Request: fold
Amino acid sequence: MNQRKSFYSRFHNQLLKSAKWPSNYMFKFIIPASEKTKDKLFKLFENRKIVSKIKSSKNGNYLSVSFEGTFSGPNEIISIYLKAEKIQGIIQL
Reply:
């Protein structure tokens, strides 16, 4: 099993044990401060009931973005992370 699959397998098990699903979950990301990147990230959460918060870095080069909402389970959470990791310059916290 490669390192990435191993990570997501452990993460899936941790999520299963840590909450009764559906459950509230918060995603946190750091992205380059560009509208294009921000739009790609927000598109992952469209049609979902979420609360988002954006904070700009001191020099304005990066954005800290969080999304909080209720999700059906670990598979939904991991699916979003897998899509997010394809966004250039993103850091997933």
Summary: The radius of gyration is 14 Å.
